[in-house]
Design a protein that fits this description.
Blueprint: E1 4-7, H1 14-20, E2 25-27, H2 34-37, E3 45-48, H3 61-69, E4 73-77, H4 80-88, E5 94-96, H5 98-104, H6 132-144, H7 150-162, H8 170-174, H9 184-194, H10 201-214, H11 231-240, E6 242-245, E7 249-252, H12 253-263, H13 267-286, H14 294-310, H15 320-323, H16 335-346, H17 355-365, H18 369-387, H19 391-395, H20 400-411, H21 418-424, H22 430-446, H23 449-455, H24 459-467
Parallel strand pairs: 1-2, 1-3, 3-4, 4-5
Antiparallel strand pairs: 6-7
Helix pairs in contact: 4-5, 6-7, 12-18, 13-14, 13-16, 14-16, 18-22, 18-24, 20-22
Length: about 475
């Protein structure tokens, strides 16, 4: 049986949608990454009403195209749904309603036409501002009802368009109209008129979308476009993939990999072995060597490949630009092995393959993902307990040198060797390390990862321990 999923918030309440479509799955306003996490099949219907513009990252166009490519129907109306439907109509996303048509005809163009400032889920997404597209529509109806002159309408719409979307409200805008065009009493009468439900264009479009869903007949979408999977698309798809831990907390696979990089003593050896294997396959393809033995020929083949690509002579001393990335203790190794280590350390072919996929497969094959995900969830719970709702921002204020010193000690490396340690653990640089390690630094320092692993049997137990 196909599923119907609806992303909504300030435009139309979940309670109203549930009344009309009791079997629909309801979600908060759509944000970047949400669609990637869904387990969908061809014939399912994803409908977008509301989505984040400002508070969080917006849904990517390629996230929607990925669903269409897989035969999943995607419809949109009213707000973010209308905007993305107009942008992707050529590829098969279906748009419904007046706002969608206005975008398609070029009557409106800006993203901010449908944007509003609203509260979070706890306050049921109450809107604190009015959408420009609603203001245009309501004022036009007021002119037809002879409650507003065309000159006053022009002043209101022009003023609204000049303001940031989060500052637009009818009360504020009506105060901008001179009294000779609109008296205070007329303004109050007009306010009652424009705030009537039938003048909320976005809401009317959302209701039209629900009517269309009620008439929906299950049918897989047949894409007519050619799909091009770029390295960037593969990267964010992998970043957003993950699963819920104990049906409660969503953990991205990328974060599970981060804790593996940070806390596993054997990670550098695993990282080197797997990336060398990937580079060997790339090198074999480059030299068109169909048969090779990775374990026996990896170092030689990779070294020859890097030397060819970077115009290096394996019989001569490497230039400073290469030696910069060789540990002093490694200078006694054969040049081929030195170059292979540099290739892994810098991941010279980073655009041709994402090595993180190989490490995640390694975790899954050894059934280590569950532990890593629980550790991620426990660290986030701890941060929430320590810093409250502002935990993510507070983590980023930790001084980087403190984190570097703490993990340097944990890994048993000196300050001079720390940069090499970062590269050998798959961090591209100090900035990358700090951004990804900050969520786990205080947890490790105050709780201890090893202590947590020994004492916490489940996240439920851990939550109880935190609460006490």
């Amino acid at each position: 049986m196909s599923r119907v999923l609806i992303f909504s918030g300030p435009t139309l309440s979940h309670e109203h949608i549930q009344h009309m479509l009791p079997d629909a799955e309801l979600y908060p306003p759509l944000q970047g990454g949400d669609l990637t996490r869904l387990k969908l099949e061809a014939g399912d219907l994803v409908t977008i009403i509301d989505g984040f513009f400002y508070q969080s990252s917006s849904v990517r166009h390629k996230e929607i195209l990925e669903l269409l490519r897989r035969g999943i129907q995607v419809w949109g109306a009213a707000s973010m749904g209308a905007l993305r439907a107009a942008e992707l109509a050529h590829f098969g996303m279906r748009g419904i309603g007046h706002v969608f048509e206005a975008y398609m005809q070029g009557i409106i163009e800006g993203d901010d036409e449908v944007a509003v400032l609203h509260a979070d889920e706890d306050m049921e997404y109450i809107s604190f501002s009015d959408a420009l597209v609603n203001i245009r529509h309501a004022c036009a109806r007021a002119v037809e009802a002879q409650l507003l002159s065309e000159a006053a309408e022009h002043r209101i719409v022009e003023t609204a368009a000049s303001l940031p979307f989060y500052e637009r409200s009818y009360r504020h805008l009506l105060r901008q109209v001179p009294e000779e065009l609109l008296s205070p009493q007329e303004a109050e009468n007009l306010l009652s008129f424009v705030q009537q439900e039938q003048h909320n264009l976005k809401r009317q479009d959302a209701l039209e979308l629900l009517d269309a869903i009620q008439a929906y007949t299950v049918k897989s979408f047949v894409p007519s476009f050619e799909w091009h999977e770029t390295s960037h698309a593969r990267s964010w798809q992998m970043t957003e993939q993950g699963s819920a831990v104990e049906q409660d907390f969503w953990v991205a696979d990328a974060e599970a990999l981060t804790v593996y990089q940070l806390f596993d003593a054997n990670y550098p050896q695993v990282h080197y072995r797997l990336l060398l294997h990937l580079l060997t396959a790339i090198a074999a393809q480059y030299f068109r060597e169909a048969s090779y033995e990775p374990d026996e020929n990896s170092i030689e083949l990779v070294a020859r490949y890097i030397a060819t690509r970077c115009d290096l002579d394996l019989e001569k001393e490497f230039p400073a630009s290469v030696n910069r990335w060789v540990r002093p203790i490694e200078r006694t190794l054969p040049r081929k092995e030195q170059l292979a280590r540099v290739a892994v350390r810098l991941w010279i072919d980073r655009r041709s393959a994402d090595w993180r996929e190989a490490l995640l497969d390694h975790l899954k094959e050894r059934e280590m993902m569950d532990t890593q995900r629980k550790l991620v969830s426990a660290a986030h719970m701890f941060n929430q307990k320590l810093w409250g709702r502002d935990a993510a921002a507070r983590c980023l204020t930790i001084r980087p040198e403190r984190m570097c010193a703490w993990f340097g000690q944990r890994w048993g490396v000196t300050e001079a060797e720390f940069e090499f340690a970062l590269l050998d653990r798959g961090f591209s640089d100090t900035t990358d390390f700090v951004e990804r390690a900050c969520s786990f630094y205080m947890f490790d320092k105050l709780v201890g990862v090893e202590s947590w692993k020994q004492s916490a049997s489940s996240l439920i137990d851990w939550r109880r321990e935190l609460a006490s």
